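Q: Got a minute? One more chain.
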Amino acid sequence: MTADSLKALVRTIPDFPKPGIQFRDITSLLADADGFAALIALMADAARTLDVDYVAGIEARGFILGAAIATALGAGFVPVRKAGKLPGAVVGIDYALEYGTDRLEVHRGQFPGGARILLVDDLIATGGTALAAARLLRGEGAQLAMALFAIDLPDLGGMAALVAEGLPSRAVMTFPGH
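A: Always. Here it is, folded:
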């Protein structure tokens, strides 16, 4: 399957979560067995030469994609969770949202310092969450090899923000607009 055929499997939900937003929903793609397998294959192929030790997936759809990609690459998986979801000792980072703040956390010592990590999520929009995850992982000593997304919304500038922060980034599909 090509990126264009995968795009046809992504639903667009108008005015969600608020008026004017065109929400790109990958759950319809995930429900298509061939489409899901093709997406994972394309994403894993994009990262195969990076020789990563771990794939870090951002909650929640990043878990679905990241765990499958980690398996395809023979790498471990690290969940980047919202605050209060992980048992035991955690490290976290607060970051700004359009309407307030949020927090991401990982287990303290989840990976050794210097580990090569691929950061994965389903979609990059403004980049706030991905930037926070990258900073959190780097703060724990990770070497981020790349940030990889199923979908980029380039009009919102998130991918450019990651690249400006020195993090190579790539997406399988792009959609114009918000």
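A: The two ends are 25 Å apart (CA to CA).
Q: Perfect, thanks.
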